[in-house]
Model the fold of this input.
Amino acid sequence: MTASVLKEKLAARIRAHGPITIADYMATCLADPEVGYYITRDPFGTKGDFTTAPEVSQMFGELIGAFCLQAYLDLGEPDSFQLVELGPGRGTLMADLLRTASLRPEFVEAAGLCLVETSPALRKVQAKTLEKAPLVPVFYDRFADVPGGPLILVANEFFDALPIHQYVKTADGWRERMIGLSETGELCFGVGTGRLDDTELPPETQNAPEGTILETQPAANAIAQEIGTRLARHGGAALIVDYGYLKTATGVSLQALYKHTHDDVLAHPGEADLTAHVNFEVLARAARDGGATPLPPLEQGEFLLRLGLLERAGALGSEKSHAVQEAIRDAVERLAAPDQMGTLFKVLALSGDGRALAPFDM
Ligand code: SAH
Done:
């Protein structure tokens, strides 16, 4: 079954049952069991559709390893805890993280490694990447299936892949944006009957002009709330890195990436990556509702610099060739410069009991 078959599958479903939500579309494109984008491929790197921070440089995962190790020490070195990663991609971040965290052998001895990953193709890649790692991963389909106990959790570019809904402001209030079929049988956007209760929206969105679009992320919020509940019950820390915004705002952030270029969201279902920016304000609120304490988020550049990105880069490049040093400098730029990943990406830390987590402010 090829991916263009997914377009036909979606069209048949719409003809039979009517327009689908953007969330349905996203979930089907990314996770259809036969031809879903993540289910069938390894999308990372120059040959794939996009490059993530752990694939830019080992320094990213190493510094997150330093965060995890510090969190473990701050927790009082628990005898056992779950080291969890949501959506581990190629497993690169975890491999780099474990190299740093192994500096304290007790960390590895106490940790159970839980990888939450739905894609069979990527599970294989992750197992291979972690072949020489000091821990053997156990795979889970959902975070809810991860065993109890104190938690140290990381998620990089996971939440942006979860289905979002879009609402359009009309004369009749916010109505859900749907995907239906045009007269020529092509997928197209339309407005449905679903409504958004806007009583909790900030005033500037309530006064938005007609045609304004607002995105919501109930799937992401539900997972954040569950993480919050676990952290409050068993203790621990979570680190969520993603591109997104810190205050609820209107506008479309849903985008398709196809072979490293922006693509029409409806053009290549199942063949293009679909993501949406994460609303960190509501994500943090959901985690708080679960019982955890969100700390004020940092931009990725600031987060990495506080953890010692420049020092690590210096150590890594010392006594290396000019070309290697140049590549390390490029990686620092990509990860931390404001015009690259440095400000677009945000880092949210959640604390189980409200204690401080370096390098975040309280
Ligand atoms: N963290 C990695 C990969 C980010 S891409 C990196 O930074 O390189 C998103 C990852 O989340 C992929 O591994 C994808 O297969 C996984 N994923 C997407 N939706 C998921 C879901 N609902 N449940 C579990 N994993 C999911």
Summary: The longest strand covers residues 236-245. The longest helix spans residues 58-74. The chain has a mean pLDDT of 95.
